[in-house]
Amino acid sequence: MLKAFGLEVVKARKINPIVQILLIIVAVLVAFLISGWFISLTGGDPAEAFTVMFKGAFGNKRKVLETLLRSAPLLLTALATVITFRAQIWSIGQEGQLFSGAMFAYLLYRIFQPVLREGLLLLTVVVIGGFLGGALLGLLSGFMKAKFNVDIIISTVMLNYIVTTMLLFLLYDHKYWMGTTTYYPRTDPIAESSWYPILTSDSRLHMGFLIAVGLAILIYWILKRTPYGYDIRALGANPIATKFKGINIGRLIMITMFFSGGLAGLAGAGEVFGVHHNLSMEISPGYGYTGIIIAMVAELNPLICILVSVLFGGLINGSTILIAATGIHSSITFVIQALILMSVLICRALMKYRIRRIAHVG
Amino acid sequence: MWDEFFQAAVIVNILAATIRISTPLLLSAMGELVAERSGVMNLGVEGMMIFGTFTVWLVVFNGGTTLLAIAVVVLVGAFLGWLLGWLVIYLKMDQTVTGLSINLLASGFSIYMYRAFNIAGETVSVELLPNLSIPYLSNIPYIGQIVFNQSIYTYLAFLSVPVIAWILHRTKIGLAIRSCGENPGAVDTRGINVYHIRMISTTFGGIMACLGGAFLMTVVSSRFLPDMTAGRGWLAIIIVIAGNWKPARMIIATLIFAFLGALQLTLTTFDIAIPYEFLLVMPYVLALVALMLSRTRSAAPAKLAMPYSRE
Question: Which terminus of chain B has fewer CB atoms gathered within 10 Å of its CB, N or C?
Answer without folding.
Answer: C
